[in-house]
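To close the section, here is one more complete example, presented without commentary so you can practise reading it yourself. The ligand is S-adenosyl-L-homocysteine.
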Amino acid sequence: MPQLEDSFLHKGRRRAMCARLAERGITDPAVLAAMEKVPRHWFVDPTVEEHAYDDQALPIGCAQTISQPSTVAFQTQLLELKRGMKVLEIGTGSGYQTAVLCTLGARVFTIERQKALFDSTKQLLYDLHYHARCFLGDGYKGLTEVDYAPFDRVIITCGAPYVPTAVMEQLVPGGIMVIPVGNNNQEMLRIVKPCNDSEEPLVETYGNCRFVPMLSDINFRQEP
Ligand code: SAH
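Output:
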């Protein structure tokens, strides 16, 4: 279990973090309010807790990182979420982004490929009463189990070399996918799926970013 204390100091740091996010162009009040609510220090390793409200990515074990707050805010804002929407997240990691999406009232389905992270984060989200559905699997496939798809929104929180076709298919017509695409460095894309098959998706670009890689199915199978 994490250190569950949420002191005035933590809250104050969180407020300051959100003020900085607002200064840096996060304009969606719901996103700012959600990030002011979720105790990010519960999602980081206790050894780096004092940096939980700095705008930096931090290690979360298994050679992975929790995305920096400005990235979480930016990706979440691009999603244009409304309460009750079904959201597929690929790359559960620490569960922080998941918790922010839950706080915004989304119905969250999240996929992680590393068993150790999946196990610990699923338990943490449960303990903290964030009602996300957690899946161990390969995000390139999305969620193939019956009845989960389609999703109103998809957020990918690892660097994808290309837009996974299966995931695109699981998006509703008119739905939005926010995805960093590229190998070592990525470009943040927002893709709006067309309402009919004869149209091309609308692709908007939002600058460079750097995520841990979205690893393939082959790597997934090679792991114990
Ligand atoms: N949203 C997370 C970010 C974690 S880093 C957070 O807030 O902490 C990205 C995560 O994507 C890592 O945990 C990594 O294991 C996972 N990942 C990488 N490739 C994946 C794939 N193909 N399917 C599912 N998860 C994947």
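Once you have examined the tokens, check your reading against these statements. The two ends are 25 Å apart (CA to CA). The pocket of S-adenosyl-L-homocysteine is lined by residues 60, 64-67, 90-91, 93-94, 96-97, 111-114, 117, 138-140, 157-158, 212, 214-215 (CB under 6 Å).
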